[in-house]
Amino acid sequence: HVETEIADQPACWQRAVELAATPLPGLPEPGERVAVVGCGTSLFIAQAYAALREGAGQGETDAFAASEAPVGRRYDRVVALSRSGTTTEILELLGELRGTVRTTAITGDPTTPVMTAADDVVVLDFADERSVVQTRFATTTLALLRAHLKLDVASAIADARRAVAEELPPGVADRTQFTFLGTGWTVGLASEAALKMREASLSWAESYPAKEYRHGPIAITDERSAVWMFGPAPEGLEEQVRETGGLWVQPDLDPAASLILAQRLAVTLAAARGLEPDTPRHLTRSVIL
Ligand code: F1P
Fold it and tell me: Which intervals hold domain SIS (predicted)?
């Protein structure tokens, strides 16, 4: 399933843009103080959105792992991202918050407990997935939220079409250690790319805010490494990586489309290693404790 779901992302993002043009009660209004929560992939999308919303001047926005959200802090709204709508930490948090703050869930499945656990719900059932590893639901959520912030998603969709069709960056599939870097909203995307590599291909993968990479992690980089930059790079970093023998990867695409390429790399490496990316070891489609 995962290959189909990856290839479907441009069409799903288009539907998200159309949906964002309609009234969607529960999505944050400008000026609201918002916390966005999720687990795993959904946490990284929460982080990307939080940085974008603050950057767009729409109000203070924090992102938390649902298990670590500070329940006592005052927000106008808590937005919970959960493809499955069944993740225990999400449901427990929404239960604790009930009656103290407005809550919104963005989910893929309208038949799940999150539908009644949150005050408002946005359902992206057209982007729901059969795979354990999340790809299109996560990026479609982000496309919806970007469109709701009135950011340009049309060029991201054009780049996404390229990302599903183009060759992978030359040489990257020959490397065995992967480091993903981002700045601002792309820090979350870098984390998500590294998670895809771990989940689907069992690769050794790390992620950092780009400038943090020079504060230690670059020590492990060598000719086995690929260093993948989401968005513009800090000055001089590319040269520093090349000096280590590491392969520098910086697709000339919208960062969310660059994430599609990273998803494809994960699936390509899984296939090369004889792994089945639809059913990764030790993982389930949602974590129910
Ligand atoms: C969150 C999640 C997935 C992960 C794994 C376990 O699920 O952490 O991101 O890939 O399958 O669950 P959800 O709350 O978004 O359904």
Answer: 24-161
The preferred substitution site among 43, 49, 83 for testing ligand 1, maximizing ligand atoms within 8 Å of CB, is 83
User: Among 87, 82, 53, 9, which Cα is nearest to 287's?
Assistant: 87
Encode pLDDT of 210-239 as tens digits: 999 999 999 999 999 999 999 999 999 999
- Whole-angstrom distance, CA of residue 117 vs CA of residue 96: 10
Sign (positive or negative) of CA dihedral 87, 92, 95, 101: negative
Ordered structural domains, the chain, with CATH = 2-154 (3.40.50.10490), 170-272 (3.40.50.10490)
Contacts of 38 (CB under 8 A, 6+ apart): 44, 45, 46, 63, 65, 66, 80, 81, 82, 90
Residue nearest to atom 15 of ligand 1 (CA): 82
d(CA 72, CA 149): 27
- Is the ipTM above a cut-off of 0.90? yes
**What is the reported pTM?**
0.97
Q: Atom 11, ligand 1: which residue's CA is nearest?
A: 285
Q: What is the pLDDT of residues 82-122, one digit of tens each?
A: 999 999 999 999 999 999 999 999 999 999 999 999 999 99
**Bridge partner residues of 88 (DSSP):** none
* Ligand 1 centroid from CA 67, angstroms: 13
- Strand order across the beta sheet in which 225-229 lies: 204-209, 177-182, 225-229, 247-249
